[in-house]
Amino acid sequence: MQRRASAYNGYTIEATDGYVGTVSDILFEDDNWKLRWFVIDTGPWLATRKILIHPSALERPDIAQRAFPVALTKAKIEKSPEIRTDAPVSRQMDSRLSDYYGFAPTWGGGFYGGTELAFGGGAMSDGPGWQNRAPSEAGDPHLRSLVEVIGYHIRALDGNVGHLEDFVVDDETWKIDYALVDTKNWGFGHHVLVSPAEIEAVDWGDRCFRLNLTRYKIKSSPSWQEPT
């Protein structure tokens, strides 16, 4: 089902043996428009620590309870490599987490019934292999925060047209299907859906998405209907 990505912020994360925390952000890739990590605030369980959980570990979301069952134990999560949420998630950390949880750093297809993921029952290893890699400080230039980009300006070929209200994601593939653009401040008065394929560039310094579309084309895009 397609839903706003930000709707998952605040969802409870339930391990196989109890409460873990809540979703506080989502990291996505701006080159293939796929969700890569859910950022979990584990307070008060692990005090102020935040962890990353890969979408392949998530069961189907419980919309009514605003909860994600997770195919991990609390012990497994607690022993995961430390991350710093005040710095970019480096390729090195991406590899460490992938090694620890037992799935490929790059993954395709849907999780539910998919065959391209290494994650699954018995697939994870508690071995220290991730500790043996050389350190790297380089951040992944394509890994971005959902909390950060909401509100970015949307710039058409002929001028500004609105701002990014949200992304619309598929909860089976965890792909970003659409950018949800709020055009009301530009006199168009509604939210429209734009394919990520039309995003020509992201200007992180100017906080804007540049689209290969005219303002008229964006204004004429399909409207978003909230799921019931």
At the fourth level of CATH, the homologous superfamily of the largest domain is: PRC-barrel domain
> Structural class of the secondary structure composition?
mainly beta
**Mean residue pLDDT:** 77
Low-pLDDT stretches: 105-138
At CATH level 3, the topology of the largest domain is SH3 type barrels
What does it look like?
- The protein is mainly β and 228 residues long.
- The chain folds into two domains: 2-143, PRC-barrel domain (SH3 type barrels, Roll); 150-219, SH3 type barrels.
- It has four helices and 13 strands.
- Strands 1, 8, 9, 10, 11, 12 and 13 form a seven-stranded mixed sheet that branches. Strands 2, 3, 4, 5, 6 and 7 form a six-stranded mixed sheet that branches.
- A hairpin with an 8-residue loop joins β4 (34-41) and β5 (50-53).
- The longest helix is centred in the middle third of the chain and has 11 residues, at 91-101.
- The protein is elongated.
